[in-house]
Fold:
Amino acid sequence: MSAILALRLAAGDADATMLTPRQDTRCALSKPEIYRRLGVRELWTLKSDGRLIVRTLEKGEWVERTKSKLFPRLDLAWLMRFLEITPQSKAVRALRDELRTKKRRS
Structure:
């Protein structure tokens, strides 16, 4: 199973939506096509094998990238470490603590 993180910039704010394959299975359009039509500029898909696929909308087509165009300074490998932590509440605390530590260092 994979999950898709859809990112859209609206009025200067980044909107994020996490969707799983079971949501809205009645639609004949693929999820990337739906997001393209909605103006979503970047999709992050977490594959069942643990790979994170980042795609950006360029000239109406989805293009795979090694990093986010919306968050170019975000280290995706660093972020992926937190997916291995369970339960989710512990992962969120670990992420928060790491961000606070980084902020103090800069």
User: Anything to note?
Assistant: The beta strands are 3-10, 13-19, 42-46, 52-58, 61-65. The CA atoms of residues 29 and 64 lie 20 Å apart.
